[in-house]
Amino acid sequence: MTHPLTDSHAVKPLRFIRRGQVVSLNNVPPSRTLLALLREDLQLTGTKEGCGEGDCGACTVVVGEAEGGRIRFRAVNSCIKLAHSVDGLALWIPEDLAAEDGTLHPAQEAMLQCHGSQCGFCTSGFVMSLFSMYQNHVCQGQPITRELAQQELSGNLCRCTGYRPILEAAQRMGDLPRARLDHADLLQKMARIATTDIGLEPDSSYQSPTTLDALLRARAAQPDAQLVAGCTDVGLWVTKQHREFAQVLDLTRVAELRRIARGAQQLSIGAAVTLSDAFAALVAERPVLQHFAARFAGLPVRNAGTLGGNVANGSPIGDSMPLLIALHAQVVLMSARGQREMPLEALYTGYRQNVMAADELLAFVKVPHAAAGEMLKVYKISKRYDDDISAVCLAINLQIDGGIVTRASIGAGGVAATPARAVRTEAALRGQPWTEATVKNAMAVLRAEFSPLTDMRASSAYRTEVLGNLLQRYWLESQGLQQINLESFTLEDAA
After folding, report:
1. What are phi and psi for residue 362, nearest 5 degrees?
2. Model confidence over 138-161: pLDDT tens digits?
3. Is residue 221 part of a domain?
4. Listed residues 122, 157, 189: the one ending a domain
5. Which domain range does residue 468 map to?
């Protein structure tokens, strides 16, 4: 398979494992999405095209990567994933699940037995998410509860409202005859096609360095190349704006940027760490973040997107930044010339603009460990509870000693051109008694601190009102009131 090229840059071969065999493709353009490669180039149409922006899950596929001597399975959206990003990995699509004799995989059989398919368009995406869930939980001897199924299927939408039988199918999989994969064989084949820096030509249109030094040298040599990680935003430029890139610099294979290091004072999270893994590390230290982490898009987006990419992208409605601002996170910018460190909020200079030079990139996010007595809450307001973008996101982190607010740190999203720290509101709280009067005064300050825009997600007036209301909710929860949010809602309590 070949593609006509519109530029002079060489295109490295794309190789991945499918159905236990090495697939090798030549001249795949750097901007080609995995979905387009499957459906249009390889005529594998079991993977469906729905929204084209990573929201509906119809295009879900599963990628496998070597990790700790095993294969880690991740369900991802192929519509916004660049084809070259699966180089050296294993790939599963709907056509790959049934055995050679036609026996259905438990993910497929369970959907059949539980009548989980209605119109059928979303079914292949659900089945692939179920396959990933099966490999990561059932094959590890872990039961799939309804709660787990709801969390891991949050990135798949069914417009026939057939969720109940699909959730039942997720639980049924573990009761069916086991389907096994030969991990050792796959690992050997993946090792043979693993990407290395050897022969990484400077004029290659798609570069995937594996070391930080190689990445920084490539960035210095090609400052105009498009940086990519999970492509959960850049992918939209391809699918919605029909943009093409002459050169792409992929940082997801850089070993140093894929690590989470726990130091004496902080967590250091590499820019290539997925949102799933980054949030898992944050939740391990601050369990209160569990619900918020699960509401950051759907699982396929979190499996592909990276924390560094979300921060560097600088969207005013990016959910990780208000939280990180409230946690006093620092970012480390690096280039071949050296590095510099700054508070996360100082990174931004305007709407999707930042202080990074052309040859710089965001390498690490450093998050201080939880302080004794900190009271952290993060509130996400969106039209849809799961798999949606925030209209307002507010993170409040206070420390109260002897009834006095001794520390205050507040991050806000959706209310300014950039993610922002609520500096005036922090000052209005710091040193004050933690009373209703203090909170009412701070609510007024918070509402006046920003001048949000009106857009498709919310009006300016709504956002302003909500800001104060969320601070009031924080106060009420600090006084022991719990039945004021969906996180604490249960059907049993409502009966």
Report:
1. -80, 120
2. 999 999 999 999 999 999 999 898
3. no
4. 189
5. 377-486
